[in-house]
Amino acid sequence: MRIENFRKETKDNLVKAIATVIWEDRDRPSKDLYFETTAEYGDDLFCNPNSFLLTCTLPAMRYGEKRIALDAPICPELKDGLITAMNYLIDWHGGDRRVIPIEAPLQSQALFPHKPPRAGCLFSGGIDALAMLRDNHLNFPPEHPRYIQDGILVYGVLNGEDEFDPSFQNVINAISMMAKDAGINLIQVNTNTNAHLRDLDSDYSFWRFEYHGSFLAAIAHAFAPRLTTVSIASTYDIPHLEPWGSHPLIDPLYSNTNLQIRHENAALSRLDKTKLVGEWDVALKHLRVCNEKESYSQGNSNCGKCEKCVRTMTALLALGILDKTSTFRENDVSKKLLLDTCYLSDSYEENCYRELIEPLKQIGRDDLADGVQQVITRYQEKDFKGLIKRFDRAFLNGNLLSYVRAKKKEKQNS
Q1: What is the tens place of the pLDDT at every residue in 129-169?
Q2: Longest Cα separation, the chain
């Protein structure tokens, strides 16, 4: 894969940093990738080769490119970090992944060496990001270099949109209210750097397990003239860490001499984070946790029906603050909704529910505590069966499953 033709363009009230990506070993058309922001922050947007390197290296490795080559200088510290990150991903996921060479001239000195310290964060308006910002402002005085002054809101993260959907303005308006109350600047970014992979990653497995930390760090580096530290909110807490695209082991590897990337709040559980957000009235009025695109067009930002919404609603209910959260239509959760909606996928999600049992009992919601326990039991039974199947495939060539099926058939015929 080659990355070339770095340039910056301004049209109307928007400024773009653009580079052309050319696939060499996979039959795909070349693509102009971009990061776009409003004119207010246009001078801070830098057509940074390091941003495009971060955007493209892991997809190039995952989807069969033999190298990644740039015709512009890159930071040697970032190059070293990316090589280490590729090794982590190979160790975690195996398969046909190989470390690919990064071919580019190396920068001999740091970019923007005299800029003053300034901290920012990726700011989605969800529980993780809001808790990160509140925790930061509670623990660092405003004059400290780590005190977050800027929040970056990205469009095109999950749904892979190539063009801006006007209905997303509802999300921008809500998050702007939270940013204003927190006293931070909201920097809006639109990008197609994930959209061009959507046909290769239709189930988002590459995004979730390998890519999104690098993707978010790339956006941070696009604002290298402005920022010296950018924080990414953790998903998993420390007891439940597992291979994931944003991880305390790999996110800092996406730093360079000019900009440090931090992975924040892995010491906090999901309930700990929800408690932090629950102390912030404006955040409760504008909380957004839903990733369903249809929710963009609604006055409230959450569908209230997906697993993530129901999990958050149950936590807010357990804390006694669901009725203070304006972005959910309902002020209650039923046991039936829990059981119909909440199917778990990993031990972290299991713990997110498990830590709700006692708080629910304490407020007299034994029905929901029992529902949560049933959700957990259902996951554990499924996970155990899945573990047996994986063991059978890996070590017994599927013979155990074949034997069980044969015995069932034999019993049915007898």
Answers
A1: 999 999 999 999 999 999 999 999 998 776 555 566 677 78
A2: 83
Amino acid at 240: H
212, 276, 280, 349, 381 from 355: Cα distances, Å: 27, 16, 21, 10, 19
Place of tokens 């940013």: 179
Name the percent of the chain lying above pLDDT 70: 88
Distance (Å, whole) CA 46 – CA 52 = 11
DSSP state of 99: P
Q: Which pair of structure tokens corresponds to residue 109?
A: 């000195």
Summarised one tens digit per residue, pLDDT across range 354-409 is 999 999 999 999 999 999 999 999 998 876 655 554 455 555 565 655 665 565 55
Pairwise CA distance, residues 21 & 229, whole Å: 27
Q: Are strands 102-103 and 68-70 parallel, antiparallel or unpaired?
A: parallel
Instruction: Give the global pTM.
Output: 0.88
Q: List C-alpha distances in Å: 26 to 21, 60, 203, 262, 339.
A: 12, 9, 20, 33, 44
Measured CA distances, 299 to 149, 325, 328 (Å): 28, 13, 10
Q: Which element (helix H / strand E) includes 14?
A: strand 14-22
Q: How far is CA 393 from CA 91, 93, 94, 387, 396, in A?
A: 20, 16, 16, 10, 6
Beta-strand relationship, 185-191 and 260-264 = unpaired
